[in-house]
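Deliverable D4.2, example record:
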Amino acid sequence: MSSVLGAGVKPTRGFLLDLKKRVKFIEEGYKLLEMKRDELARELRSNLDLLGVKRSELEKEFEEAFQKLLIVHGSVGTQEIKSLRTAAGKLLGIDVMPISVMGILVPFIKITDKPSFKNKYGSIIRSAAHDFENLLEKLLKVTELEMRIERIAEDLEKTNRKVNALEKIVIPDYNKVIKYIADRIDEDMLEEIIRTKLIRTLIIKRRS
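Output generated by the structure prediction step:
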């Protein structure tokens, strides 16, 4: 007998009706999970495409920023760059907060503090510092996107396992039990009809 119900199967009309209601409820849940799985898959594909674009942009900007850094390094030297580092004041500060995307908690990176370059350094150094600040902010956003993709992928895998279990095991098992009970009820009805006819025949014979 079915593994989803164990030994608790009762071949009665009441149990059959209850089972059909239960299967209908499970099938509705299955459809909702299917919709969620499809939406998660679309969201994952969209985020992966966006990640590819962002990574390409970062690679190009990294190259440009390091070229500018080489110019600064050649102009003022390593020691001067190190001594100017403290003049920026605050370092870049961030907070990581959870937000919900399709019911999944994903990290959101919020920048809380930024170094100040206004009226500091020369124009070349200031330009390079701004480039690296922008680059770091974009790198944080790419990291945020990568973490979002990881969480969505994990939830998609779990949802897909549930959908497969319902589709290939739970719902078929319930339908087998329903068919078994329906067949048993039909057999019992047929036996009852045959018994009734036999009794009627016997009664008619005795009367005659």
